[in-house]
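Suppose a colleague, Dr. K., hands you the sequence of a protein chain of 262 amino acids and asks what its three-dimensional shape might be. Before reaching for any lab equipment, you can write down a predicted structure in token form. Begin with the sequence itself:
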Amino acid sequence: MAHSSTLPVLLKQLKLSTMAASWQEYLEKATQNNWDPATYLAALCEEELNQRYTRRIARFQKESKLPVGKTLSSFDFSHLPQLDKGRVETMSSNTSWVERADNILFFGPSGTGKTHLAAAICNGLIDHEIRVRYYQATALVQELQRARDDLLLEKLFRRLDKYKVIIVDDIGYVRKSESETHALFELIAHRYETGSMIITANHPFSDWDKIFSDTMMTVAAIDRLVHHGIIMEIQAESFRKKQAMARNPQQTEAKGQSVKNY
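The predicted structure, expressed as tokens, is then:
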């Protein structure tokens, strides 16, 4: 017959670490509140699940490499009145678009919040246990190129497959090198209808021939991204410029006056 003295050992063998650490505390609560055995067991199981969720989310957050502090609550939507706030919030909380392997493409000038929005959406997805990975486009292309040179590109693709969403930030800064852009195209083709991508770009599709090495590759990449794509265009003044002007109003006014005088 089982004895309570063996409980810590049994829980450890079952890899129920939270229950092993909490069973005595919850036993005291059960005694004080006259819980029946089923209630006591349910409370212990719930604590185990809660702690596992917390650890899993912390692990997903760490591996995501997302920029720090980029959440929807910290984003100034008043700066972008034309942006559909509700749609962005839905994309961060409703994972159906991820399950369909849809893509999101943010277009707009530098400094208008594209990176913030992409990261904020992914922070919301992590809370729903979706694994994501953030990359600066140039860093991603370099990693892809190294893997390609070492004949390890397929292995890298398999490693990236564990992330349901990959952010490719500032794709317009990728150098127009045939070997590098070909590796990027291979990733886009690999994830087509199997994994989602969020891409930010300063330039419209009409300028993407500056990214990829030939027209056919450009058209093929765009076609795969937009087939199941959500396109969001942002037209606004740079947040960074606005903040700089707010910090230095006198300097900005003086500069404007000198230009006017000239």
